[in-house]
Amino acid sequence: MLTMLCADSDPQRLAQIIEDLQPLKTRLTLLQATSLFQAEQLILQNKQNIALILCAQTFADGNAMSILKRSQSNTMGKIVYATTPCATELIDYINQGHIDYFITLPYQAQELITVIQQQVSRYKINHQQRQLFPKNSIVDTTRLLNKPELSNSSSFKEKFLDYSLYSDSELSHLVIKSLYKVLETGDQYKIRRRYSTNHILTREGEKNCFLWFITKGEVLLKKRNAHGEIQDITIMQAGTMVGGMSFLTGEPAFSTGITLVETEVLKVDNTIFSQIMQSNTALLAPFTNLLLRNFNRRLQHSISTELALQETLESLDLAYNQLIESEKMVVLGQLVTGVAHELNNPVAAILRGSDSLKELIFTLLGCNDNTPFSQLARRTLQQGLSLVPLSTLEIRQRTKQLLPKIKDKKLAKCLINMDLDDQQIPLENNRNLRESILLLDKFYQVGSILRSSNACASRIADLVKSLKHYAAQDSPVSELADIHEGLEETLIIFENKLKHYSVIKEYQQLPKIECHPIELEQVWTNIISNAIDATGDTGMIRISTVYLPYDEAPSIQVIIEDNGPGVPAHNLDKIFELNYTTKREGHFGLGIGLTICTQIIKQHHGSIEIESQLGLFTRFIITLPVFNPNIESERLPLLCS
Description:
Helices cover about 50% and strands about 20% of the residues. By secondary structure, it is an alpha+beta fold.
């Protein structure tokens, strides 16, 4: 039976310790000493049997260092306790290897018993190893296998599990030391190898038939990531093992192992490994523990990595959401600025209309009767309230037909705009034909102004609505719409700017299409605004529509062309990029208008293209499907550049 020495110059405390350790009396013989001298004598008398010393840090006649130094055995456990420990002494004890454990008083009896059991188990392992591998001796495997304590399965199991008390480094060195003991009879297996720097031990993805124990040097493990880039994983030091998993499972090597410095290893293949294990059974327990521990470390690392990645992904998701919100606020600021700029156009149109109405209202009040002319005037005002898009070609043809009768091109166009070219104009109150037509035109202007004001007010409401939607307060619904109406309403907004422009409209008959008309109107607004800025104060803008009646997927095209300076070929690919702008100094532009246009067109499952030739023209071609039941419900912000 193993022996434990308890030493303390406080008799009362010593008695309490002995009483608390009564559960261990069946496994340990407890010796008592109340002075350093008595403790030294007991150590000398029982040095072969003492497995553990438990003593106070200070005695009445000195400190514990004197008796701890006398216990020369490296396998003997030493536990020291104190109420107020001397830190300096403890550091010296630990650095010099004179104590294995320290307890601060008061202690818990069960915790003390647990610590003592661990130290006794450690003593058994160390003591057994010294018996199995005595200094300067060759392992006698026959003697080991015939030892009764090893042949008993329960005893062997107990000693096998005791290897868990070793640290990773201690267990690795134990296995390597044991292998060296086997090799003392001669390296008949030729497992000792020495490699220079940059020697490859294992290759990722290739079959590995060897187990590598590093006895000296360093091995770097590398692995290819998902992008094909090779990354360093870890550096394996002396006392560690490389290739264990692939060696035992037969799977391809997980990583590439390459020596960083001159490295010595024990290289074992399957055949040699089997022979060594069969002829040296004592290696089985520590090696199995080492292998399981390596696998466990890898599993723990994988789990830790997985948890860290999960935590990182959650952090990235949070950061991404925060970034989206931050970006949304930035774009919202730009949106507000852009919308405020765009509001200038409809507001200016409303103000112009108001000024004109002030002048025309007195004329209207003077024609409040039921004469044929007054009835025609009211009809003309009503005509002005409605929008009848006419192409430039149609206006030209109808003007040509009317000129022989009217003899005045300006008056002829005026009648055509009012849709009165086939009407007989009543002449009343001594007014001639010219005066009557011009008076009717004033009625038409009032209706047109009211229609324009209504369109501009609706435009403002829709722009505000787009802001609300961007702030997730509203959601638009797609509808069947006439593209020509959206184009005409956009031209009304730019009516003042287009006074000195030649606006050519070439409209084909188009079916209504499923769309978000306000968003498409934003596209027309951006492109026409860019055309106006590109051409200066005067120029030509041509707007064409084309119907493409494909059998399965009919579509329409809107082509907007200006005769401005054009866009250089090397900039055509950049024209739809965010923050790219070609506007001259002094012209408002965020460089995001055409980007938004692209997004709106894509939302409608259409396409937008640009063609340009320097000094001649720039042409935008927008293609939209007629049947589009899958329009995304999320509206993009309407924003002018």
